[in-house]
Write a structure and sequence with these properties.
The protein is mainly alpha-helical. The chain has helices spanning 8-34, 41-72, 87-106, 111-138.
């Protein structure tokens, strides 16, 4: 057993904190883009709600379940603080960050799209992070 590391409970809480921080950062970008738009409030709100529902229900909720199950089933209660994602999860996250930065840097999508997409995506990330935190607070280690 590793001498150093964090418990499964702390790993789950760390995942929640990371997801919330990512969501807040994306929300800031979405709000800044939203502020440049005029006269499309309801359209943006409906679009953001659609993005939220799509990502939360079809992607992030499943990832939350997958990662909490994987962390709960870890053999040791001493884990690398970054192991809340598996290797595939880290690769996807890095790809998504690079894609988002590239899209904004090269102006590949309109600010209107970015405002809608990022705002909905951020709320889905934040809610998923809160699910991790809730699970982590209630988590009772078997060992």
């Amino acid at each position: 057993m590793a001498k150093y590391g964090i418990s499964r409970k702390m790993l789950i809480l760390t995942a929640g904190i990371v997801w919330i921080i990512a969501g807040i950062n994306i929300l800031i970008i979405g709000i800044k883009a939203w502020q440049t738009q005029h006269g499309t409030g309801w359209l943006h709100l409906c679009g953001s709600a659609s993005v939220f529902l799509l990502f939360f229900l079809l992607i992030f909720r499943r990832l939350y379940k997958k990662h909490t199950k994987r962390i709960s089933n870890k053999e040791t209660d001493r884990n690398c603080p970054f192991s809340f994602f598996d290797v595939k999860g880290w690769i996807v996250m890095v790809f998504m960050i690079l894609l988002g930065v590239s899209i904004r840097h090269f102006g590949l999508l309109s600010l209107s799209f970015i405002s809608i997409f990022y705002t909905g995506l951020s709320v889905a990330l934040i809610l998923s992070g809160l699910l991790f935190i809730r699970f982590g607070i209630k988590y009772k280690s078997i060992n």
